[in-house]
Amino acid sequence: MKTSRSWWMGTRDYLITPATSRQRAHVKRTPRWILLFVSLAAIFLVSAYYLYQPRTTVSAAPCSVFDQGGCTTTYDGDRVVPAKVFTDEETSAHVVIREILNTPPPLSRSPKVAFMFLTPSSLPFEMLWERFFQGHEDKFTVYIHSSRDKPIHSSRYFVGREIRSEKVEWGRISMVDAERRLLAHALLDPDNHQFVLLSESCVPLRTFNYVYHHLMFTNVSYIDSYVDPGPHGSGRYSNRMMPEVRYSDFRKGAQWFSMKRQHAIIVMADSLYYKKFKLYCRPNMDGKNCYSDEHYLQTFFTMIDPEGIAKWSVTHVDWSEGKWHPRSYRASDITYELLKNLTTIDEAIHVTSEGKVHTLSIFLSLSFLSMVLVIDILTTMNRK
Fold first, then answer.
1. Which domains occur in the chain, in start order?
2. Could you list the residue ranges that cross the membrane (predicted)?
């Protein structure tokens, strides 16, 4: 007998037969205990999935303390869990920092670069720096922090440029205090827009115009900052820095920097994070040797403005010898080929406790111990 097919909205296709041929088919029913067992098993599996699925922490890109919910977000199933709640002191500090970052630097007819020298006594390369500065007197200022002896100057650009100085001990917070002291004096001049920290052994490897234009046309500060997961990096962290500074925030880097004016003002305004490093990042702290000049600014700016810093320094430091101090170039090392090679380096290498991390771009060089040949060679190079 023929059958006819009809469609019911929202259901499957049903086969409909005339009433004369309808017969109730014998259906074998499934036992109830099997249905109950399958239902309970399904409920158990679904519950286990939501209860025991792994939490995922997302920190692929650096973020600032102004991000909502903290810098690291934890996902508990479909629920977003804020990673950090700021204390009242942190909130107050971040308000000040945000206002400074949003305030443009003062207009200046002749913006300058402040060259800040951190030295124990006299500067052995003053005559080299004089050749570097000559003819650009309206574009730079010099500041000298001499922690041990009063410098004897051989260049007119350095005479009378000493600031009030105090004793500096290697690895102690006094090193950071000297940096802040230099920044404070340099900030008194509203025409200073960029601030470069240098040691007595620094020499310029580029012309003044190259350095000046590179700094003036950048919108970032050059602060060496990276994660060293080993004992001489993150291993120096102290839980006493909590809650303001977490283990995941802790960074390391060389102390030499170039800093834009807004960032220099922020360093002056900070007391909250500075105090944490003063108290808990020092030699023999909890059996660890933490050096604040290698961690304070590096961690601080990674927390407050990670997109506002280039995470490498404007100076070249050679740590390839694996010692506490970088390699120093002696008279026998200084050749035209060496200095020419240094000017062509396009990457800085971070030597960590567990390997090397590559970054970019330098234009100054550190740690020359002798003036022999350096002035003549660099002068020749810069003329070419």
1. 90-312 (3.90.550)
2. 33-52, 360-379
